[in-house]
Amino acid sequence: MKKNLRKICILLLAAAMAFILGACSEIRLARPMSSDVLLIIDDTECSTAEGVFRLMEIKELYHADEDEIFWYRSIGDTDLEHYVKDSVLDEMTKYTASVIMADEMALTLSIDEQSEVMNYAQQAYNEMSQKYDLAKYGITLQNVEDLYMKKALYELVFNDVSKDVTMEISTTDTKVILLNYVEIPPKTSIDDIEAMRSLIKGGADFGEVCEENGYEPHMNCVTKRGDFSTQFENVAYALLDGELSEAIETKECIYLIQCVEDYMVNESVANYNEVISRARKNKFNEAFIEFSADRLLRMNSKVWDDISVPDL
User: Fold this and answer.
1) Are residues 251 and 194 in the same domain?
2) How many other CB atoms sit within 10 Å of the CB of residue 68?
3) Which domain holds residue 196?
4) pTM of the entire predicted model
5) Does the N terminus or the C terminus of the chain have fewer Cβ atoms within 10 A?
6) 132 and 56 in contact (C-beta within 8 Å)?
7) Distances (CA, A) of 110 to 63, 115, 117, 162, 303
8) Which of 102, 89, 143, 94 is nearest to 121 (CA)?
9) CATH number where 287 lies
10) Three-state DSSP state, 38
11) Would you say residue 140 lies in a domain?
């Protein structure tokens, strides 16, 4: 169950809360809306049926029906159900905004791309209709087609505004390395530290030398930029396989670092992709915040609050 919960956190963090929590510099409320409408940005609508269908898709990923308390587990200062609903509402807001953004940016889907979107929508509708009572929530094929078209336009806008991000990020800055290191009290004699270094450089085991001198070593630490101080990382990232650092004096301690592996291939590729993904989302959010500054957002909070994910 912990594994499932962790999976949910990872997937749902992809739907950032920027708009709901403040991306719009002005949210101007208007008269109450029909329960069929979840939100409107200017004159572009997102139906409640679209939002509920997306909730069903998210729910279907986790197969949590047999666990009665699954959706009520804590996530930060809320529970999982409300975290999911907030995330999906943010998705729906960005999808809807992307319809306007795509038009203003003169971005369009080709006939073939539109046809592909419709095919995906039909497939999704067919699959979910076997598992959920779609009619209960007024969900039609048209609603699902509208949702999938909004999502396709979101991806189109996202890719366009973030297309140059890869050129701004170096693989050198995203490489992952494997280290041994030890923290030595700052007043330790440099002669004693050099004696340790001599033993290690002579072939003695890093961990054993540290322990014999009364220090607790940190062994085989997978490390990426940002895990340690700049001073530590500048030295660590300059080391080659098997190389031992000089003593690194800081206010807190004296470090000795041994590089076990100066480039972990699989981990470095994964970290590069993660950094790129995060940077692209940030780039889109910047464009989204600029777009949303003077937009009229109307949100049907009551109808959304009344939806229960466990009861779908």
Assistant:
1) yes
2) 9
3) 177-262
4) 0.76
5) N
6) yes
7) 36, 9, 11, 20, 35
8) 143
9) 1.10.4030
10) strand
11) yes
Q: Dihedral through CA 13, CA 16, CA 21, CA 23, nearest 10?
A: 170
Cα angle for residues 11, 84, 159 (degrees, 5° grid): 45
What's at 139, amino acid-wise?
I
Element (H, E) at 259: strand 254-261
CA 36 to chain centre: 30
Query: CA 192, CA 247: separation in Å to the nearest integer?
Result: 11
In a domain, 248, yes or no: yes
Longest dimension (CA), the chain: 79
List residues bridging with 223 in a β-sheet.
Answer: 177
204 and 80 co-located in one domain = no
- With the C-alpha atoms ordered 113, 119, 121, 123, is the resulting torsion angle positive or negative? negative
Distance CA 266, CA 274 (A): 12
> Is residue 39 within 8 Å of residue 97, measured between CB atoms?
no
pLDDT of residue 33: 77
Tens digit of each residue's pLDDT (9 = 90 or more) over 157-216 = 999 999 988 777 888 889 999 999 999 999 899 999 999 999 999 999 999 999 999 999
At 202, phi and psi to the nearest 5? -80, 0
95 token code pair: 């999808």
Concatenated DSSP letters of 191-226? HHHHHHHHHHHTT--HHHHHHHTT--EEEEEEE-TT
What sign has the CA pseudo-torsion 96, 97, 101, 104?
Answer: positive
Q: How many domains does the chain have?
A: 2
Handedness of CA 289, 293, 298, 300 (dihedral sign): positive
pLDDT, one tens digit per residue, over 102-151 is 999 999 999 999 999 999 999 999 999 999 999 999 999 999 999 999 99
pLDDT at 244 over 50: yes
